[in-house]
Amino acid sequence: MSTAVTATVSAVCATVAVVITIAVIRRCRRWRWKVYKKFMAKITDEINRRNRELEACAAVNDVVIEIGPVEKFLHEILNEKPMRFSSEQLASCTGKYSTELGSGGFGVVYKGELPNGLPVAVKVLKVSMNKKVQEGFMAEIGTIGRTYHVHLVRLYGFCFDPDTKALVYEYLENGSLEKYLYRDGEGAGDGERKERLEWRTLHSIAIGTAKGIRYLHEEFQQRIVHYDIKPANILLTADFTPKVADFGLARLGERENPHMSSLTGGGRGTPGYAAPELWMALPTTEKCDVYSFGMVLFEILGRRRNYDAQLEDESREWFPKWVWDKYEQGDMECIVSAAAGIGEADREKAETMCKVALWCVQFQPSARPTMSSVVRMLEGEMAIVPPVNPFHYVSGGGSSSSWALSSSTGTGTFTSSSRDTGWDSKVSAASTPGKPTDAMVKSVESTDPVTT
Ligand SMILES: Nc1ncnc2c1ncn2[C@@H]1O[C@H](COP(=O)(O)OP(=O)(O)OP(=O)(O)O)[C@@H](O)[C@H]1O
Ligand SMILES: [Mg+2]
């Protein structure tokens, strides 16, 4: 009997144990499923969150830039980085690139208008963009975009779409100085012959330009060398205030102009304005801008291109050398009367401009003044030492055309003498930034007597 009871109890216990085990196993399964579901929900949430972030970024790119009233817009860009435009936005604000303002080594410039009515000039770049250049582009935009000076063209924004790389600048109503400078209207497009500018206007354009370059060299937090100072890169507002354009572009990449690239190694500079060290692949400093500015001063003085092969009088073919020859002979009168339109009251200013130009184009960079000295000399605040011959390094008898031709083809040859090294080293040793003229006075007076 007891055996039967024991067997029954054992059976019941076994059954209960089995039932409990089954229940526990089911619980465990359910719990595992719950944990799995929770884990999956977390992953799904994370994926959804990332997707939402990506969508938000895409949406930001697609947002049409809201541009407020002009004042607000200008205030914003003065305090912030330049704006990014899409290629569609640029196409729309330029009326599908319908009005061309001009073209140069870096691309074509079109007129445009932002939605708030602000006129702009859009330069569509055709520079070759490898990865290094692309990185440089972004860095450069940051730099150029932060420069603000009354004599520098303002960069409003840029486009960096795969199919369009462009820079959006403030629009300058009177275009470039090139269109006004030369007597025959050369430099102006068809039907664009411009009024003649008065000498005084040209003089203040020269000073304003010098101030713009001075800011780039000496006042901006990071020194910027322009590398391509020339009348085409001096733009004029409606009241003929000059603004330097295209600074910083030299570092954006090679121009699509094989002649330029081979000439100046890296596509920098323009023949006739580029300093010798640029096209001779020597080390360069900001003084190459001083040289180019000197060449612009000669063109302002003569209201002509510095090199003009059409002239019958061969000695006048290359204006800077002709000016030096006359200056050396003490014939300042001849130089000033050649510069048409200079009245009696402005003769002194013209003579000053002539001397500053001769200093700026010295062959040795260290002998050229800094831009702050250039400004002070042009404004009559600093006495000017009689310039020394900028062209005695040229071999081949110094004919007026040989140097001009060599400087525009990059094939010049130079002579160097102990005398040259003497006065140049004295100038460079004695010069201190911002005050080179005193140093020049001493060194030049003691070593290089020239006729004034
Ligand atoms: N911000 C601007 N406002 C008005 N006109 C402009 C502006 N920028 C350029 N232009 C016009 O477009 C022309 C071409 O300019 P661009 O800078 O492309 O060529 P460049 O100055 O002749 O040569 P480079 O490539 O060496 O600068 C200028 O001469 C000027 O007439
Ligand atoms: Mg330009």
TrEMBL record:
<feature type="compositionally biased region" description="Low complexity">
    <location>
        <begin position="405"/>
        <end position="420"/>
    </location>
</feature>
<dbReference type="InterPro" id="IPR011009">
    <property type="entry name" value="Kinase-like_dom_sf"/>
</dbReference>
<dbReference type="Pfam" id="PF07714">
    <property type="entry name" value="PK_Tyr_Ser-Thr"/>
</dbReference>
<feature type="binding site">
    <location>
        <position position="123"/>
    </location>
    <ligand>
        <name>ATP</name>
    </ligand>
</feature>
<keyword id="KW-0418">Kinase</keyword>
<comment type="similarity">
    <text>Belongs to the protein kinase superfamily.</text>
</comment>
<keyword id="KW-0808">Transferase</keyword>
<dbReference type="GO" id="GO:0005524">
    <property type="term" value="F:ATP binding"/>
</dbReference>
<feature type="transmembrane region" description="Helical">
    <location>
        <begin position="6"/>
        <end position="25"/>
    </location>
</feature>
<keyword id="KW-1133">Transmembrane helix</keyword>
<keyword id="KW-0067">ATP-binding</keyword>
<keyword id="KW-0472">Membrane</keyword>
<dbReference type="GO" id="GO:0004674">
    <property type="term" value="F:protein serine/threonine kinase activity"/>
</dbReference>
<dbReference type="InterPro" id="IPR008271">
    <property type="entry name" value="Ser/Thr_kinase_AS"/>
</dbReference>
<keyword id="KW-0325">Glycoprotein</keyword>
<dbReference type="InterPro" id="IPR000719">
    <property type="entry name" value="Prot_kinase_dom"/>
</dbReference>
<protein>
    <recommendedName>
        <fullName>Protein kinase domain-containing protein</fullName>
    </recommendedName>
</protein>
<keyword id="KW-0723">Serine/threonine-protein kinase</keyword>
<keyword id="KW-0732">Signal</keyword>
<keyword id="KW-0547">Nucleotide-binding</keyword>
<feature type="domain" description="Protein kinase">
    <location>
        <begin position="95"/>
        <end position="392"/>
    </location>
</feature>
<dbReference type="GO" id="GO:0016020">
    <property type="term" value="C:membrane"/>
</dbReference>
<dbReference type="InterPro" id="IPR017441">
    <property type="entry name" value="Protein_kinase_ATP_BS"/>
</dbReference>
<keyword id="KW-0812">Transmembrane</keyword>
<dbReference type="InterPro" id="IPR045874">
    <property type="entry name" value="LRK10/LRL21-25-like"/>
</dbReference>
<feature type="region of interest" description="Disordered">
    <location>
        <begin position="405"/>
        <end position="452"/>
    </location>
</feature>
<dbReference type="InterPro" id="IPR001245">
    <property type="entry name" value="Ser-Thr/Tyr_kinase_cat_dom"/>
</dbReference>
